[in-house]
Amino acid sequence: MSADIIREWNFWLASIITGACMAFLYDIFRLFRRLIRHGRFAVDLEDILYWAVCFGISFALLYYGNNGVIRFAAVLGAAVGMLIYVATLGRFFVRFSYAVIDKTIGSFLRLLKKILRRLKKLFRPVKNAIVKMHDKKILFYQKCRLTGKTFRHNIIMCRGKKTQKRKGETNHGKAKKEKGKKKKNAGVPPHQK
């Protein structure tokens, strides 16, 4: 065989391996999505990241393997590699990995969650007592603050001959004025008033 044919076969095998690696990388993302649930925005961000990495791998393959020329053999090799991976290892990888992680790390996390829930239940009376003490302390300070306030009223006392209705004049002041008038007119008969 000539060196060119061997180089072409090596390039085609590299493209098959690249396709299988791309499919494996996507399965890693799928496994991550199964383990940690997240929203649509995060999934879209992960897809953009995945395609950027795939573009970089494909570019490196074409640049170093074929001097940057895009050939059908490279695209076909990547597609064949993806199909081989999906038909063999890819069928079981995500399910098996998820089951293993769920049995090991997942069971540990569930046990930890159960312990924390029981501890929370155990310490609930202590927490309630602390909250009540804190509320009483706040209430005590509020009462102290309320009793410490002083209110000042401005009362204008009317003294003098002319009495006018002034702001702050009380009914008691009006009653005194009327008594004073009655004393002056005490000796005068009613028809002369």
Question: Can you describe this structure?
Answer:
By secondary structure, this protein is mainly alpha-helical. It has helices at residues 3-35, 40-66, 72-87, 90-122, 124-147, 171-184. The protein contains six helices and no strands. The mean pLDDT is 77.
Order of helices and strands: HHHHHH
Give the end-to-end Cα distance, rounded to a whole number of Å.
147 Å
Oligomer: single chain
Shape: elongated
Overall residue-averaged pLDDT value: 77
Helical fraction equals over 70%
Number of beta-strand segments: 0
Structural class: mainly alpha
Strand content: under 5%
List the SSEs and their pairings.
Layout: H1 3-35, H2 40-66, H3 72-87, H4 90-122, H5 124-147, H6 171-184
Helix pairs in contact: 1-2, 1-3, 1-4
